[in-house]
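Now for a concrete sample entry.
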Amino acid sequence: MRRIFPVLAFVSWLAGCSDESAGEVDGGGPTLEIGIIDHFGDSEGILVAPETVEREAPFSVEVITYARGCYVADVVEVESSSEVVTLTPYDRRLEGDVCTDGERRLSHSAELAFATPGSRTIEIVGRKVDADEDLLIRVSTDIVVE
Protein backbone atom coordinates (compact mmCIF):
# COMPACT_ATOMS: atom_id res chain seq x y z
CA MET A 1 0.00 0.00 0.00
CA ARG A 2 1.44 3.35 -1.06
CA ARG A 3 0.53 6.55 0.77
CA ILE A 4 1.49 10.16 0.11
CA PHE A 5 1.44 12.59 3.02
CA PRO A 6 2.11 16.31 2.46
CA VAL A 7 4.43 17.79 5.06
CA LEU A 8 3.72 21.30 6.30
CA ALA A 9 7.12 22.57 5.24
CA PHE A 10 7.11 24.51 1.99
CA VAL A 11 10.23 25.39 0.03
CA SER A 12 10.35 27.91 -2.77
CA TRP A 13 10.24 26.74 -6.40
CA LEU A 14 13.26 27.82 -8.40
CA ALA A 15 13.59 26.90 -12.03
CA GLY A 16 16.84 25.61 -13.48
CA CYS A 17 20.00 25.24 -11.42
CA SER A 18 20.10 28.46 -9.47
CA ASP A 19 22.68 28.88 -6.71
CA GLU A 20 19.76 29.37 -4.31
CA SER A 21 18.07 26.03 -5.00
CA ALA A 22 15.10 24.85 -2.96
CA GLY A 23 15.90 22.34 -0.26
CA GLU A 24 19.52 23.48 0.06
CA VAL A 25 21.31 21.81 2.95
CA ASP A 26 24.85 23.16 2.95
CA GLY A 27 26.12 26.66 2.22
CA GLY A 28 29.33 26.77 0.20
CA GLY A 29 30.43 24.64 -2.71
CA PRO A 30 28.21 22.26 -4.64
CA THR A 31 24.64 22.39 -3.36
CA LEU A 32 23.17 19.40 -1.54
CA GLU A 33 19.37 19.24 -1.90
CA ILE A 34 16.60 16.92 -0.79
CA GLY A 35 15.77 14.89 -3.89
CA ILE A 36 12.65 15.30 -6.01
CA ILE A 37 10.46 12.20 -5.66
CA ASP A 38 7.29 13.53 -7.29
CA HIS A 39 7.75 15.48 -10.50
CA PHE A 40 4.52 16.85 -12.00
CA GLY A 41 2.45 14.15 -10.29
CA ASP A 42 4.72 11.22 -11.10
CA SER A 43 5.95 9.36 -8.01
CA GLU A 44 5.47 5.81 -9.30
CA GLY A 45 8.47 3.55 -8.90
CA ILE A 46 10.50 5.82 -6.64
CA LEU A 47 11.04 3.01 -4.12
CA VAL A 48 12.29 -0.41 -5.12
CA ALA A 49 12.08 -2.76 -2.13
CA PRO A 50 11.07 -6.36 -1.49
CA GLU A 51 7.54 -6.99 -0.20
CA THR A 52 8.80 -9.58 2.31
CA VAL A 53 12.15 -9.85 4.10
CA GLU A 54 13.70 -12.20 6.64
CA ARG A 55 14.21 -11.02 10.22
CA GLU A 56 17.77 -9.75 10.86
CA ALA A 57 18.77 -10.33 7.22
CA PRO A 58 20.15 -7.21 5.49
CA PHE A 59 18.37 -6.21 2.28
CA SER A 60 18.83 -3.38 -0.21
CA VAL A 61 16.33 -0.72 -1.18
CA GLU A 62 16.63 1.77 -4.01
CA VAL A 63 15.16 5.28 -3.99
CA ILE A 64 14.80 7.10 -7.31
CA THR A 65 14.88 10.89 -7.56
CA TYR A 66 14.34 13.17 -10.56
CA ALA A 67 16.99 15.73 -11.50
CA ARG A 68 18.38 17.83 -14.32
CA GLY A 69 21.73 17.25 -15.98
CA CYS A 70 23.91 19.04 -13.42
CA TYR A 71 22.92 16.82 -10.48
CA VAL A 72 24.29 13.54 -9.16
CA ALA A 73 22.89 11.23 -6.49
CA ASP A 74 24.47 11.80 -3.09
CA VAL A 75 23.66 10.38 0.37
CA VAL A 76 20.52 8.81 1.78
CA GLU A 77 19.73 9.82 5.36
CA VAL A 78 18.25 6.88 7.32
CA GLU A 79 16.21 7.31 10.50
CA SER A 80 14.44 4.40 12.16
CA SER A 81 12.08 3.50 14.93
CA SER A 82 10.65 0.11 15.80
CA GLU A 83 7.86 0.47 13.20
CA VAL A 84 9.11 2.94 10.55
CA VAL A 85 12.31 3.53 8.61
CA THR A 86 12.49 6.98 7.03
CA LEU A 87 14.78 7.53 4.05
CA THR A 88 15.63 11.02 2.81
CA PRO A 89 17.58 11.03 -0.49
CA TYR A 90 19.86 13.96 -1.33
CA ASP A 91 21.12 15.09 -4.74
CA ARG A 92 24.15 17.31 -5.31
CA ARG A 93 24.38 20.05 -7.93
CA LEU A 94 27.84 20.06 -9.48
CA GLU A 95 29.61 23.41 -9.84
CA GLY A 96 30.66 24.48 -13.29
CA ASP A 97 28.50 21.91 -15.08
CA VAL A 98 25.97 23.01 -17.63
CA CYS A 99 22.51 22.24 -16.30
CA THR A 100 20.58 20.67 -19.14
CA ASP A 101 16.80 20.66 -19.25
CA GLY A 102 16.80 16.90 -19.81
CA GLU A 103 15.36 15.06 -16.84
CA ARG A 104 17.27 12.13 -15.36
CA ARG A 105 16.42 9.52 -12.77
CA LEU A 106 19.09 9.21 -10.08
CA SER A 107 19.46 6.05 -8.01
CA HIS A 108 20.15 6.08 -4.25
CA SER A 109 20.63 2.84 -2.35
CA ALA A 110 20.49 1.88 1.31
CA GLU A 111 20.84 -1.38 3.17
CA LEU A 112 18.28 -2.11 5.88
CA ALA A 113 17.49 -4.91 8.35
CA PHE A 114 14.70 -5.44 10.87
CA ALA A 115 15.22 -7.32 14.15
CA THR A 116 11.65 -8.40 14.83
CA PRO A 117 8.93 -9.93 12.65
CA GLY A 118 5.76 -8.07 11.67
CA SER A 119 4.66 -5.29 9.35
CA ARG A 120 7.06 -2.37 8.92
CA THR A 121 6.81 0.89 6.99
CA ILE A 122 9.48 2.35 4.73
CA GLU A 123 8.86 6.06 4.28
CA ILE A 124 10.56 8.33 1.74
CA VAL A 125 10.83 12.06 2.44
CA GLY A 126 11.42 14.12 -0.67
CA ARG A 127 10.21 17.01 -2.75
CA LYS A 128 7.13 17.30 -4.95
CA VAL A 129 7.74 19.72 -7.82
CA ASP A 130 5.38 21.06 -10.45
CA ALA A 131 4.79 24.39 -12.16
CA ASP A 132 3.18 25.96 -9.07
CA GLU A 133 4.93 24.49 -6.05
CA ASP A 134 7.95 22.81 -4.52
CA LEU A 135 7.11 21.19 -1.19
CA LEU A 136 8.18 18.31 1.02
CA ILE A 137 6.09 15.13 0.93
CA ARG A 138 6.23 11.64 2.40
CA VAL A 139 5.64 8.48 0.36
CA SER A 140 5.43 5.18 2.20
CA THR A 141 5.06 1.48 1.62
CA ASP A 142 4.62 -1.45 3.98
CA ILE A 143 6.73 -4.60 3.99
CA VAL A 144 6.44 -7.86 5.94
CA VAL A 145 9.29 -9.07 8.14
CA GLU A 146 9.18 -12.84 8.70
Q: What stands out?
A: The two ends are 18 Å apart (CA to CA). Confidence is low (pLDDT under 50) at residues 1-24. The first strand starts at residue 3 and ends at 11. The chain has one domain: 3-145.
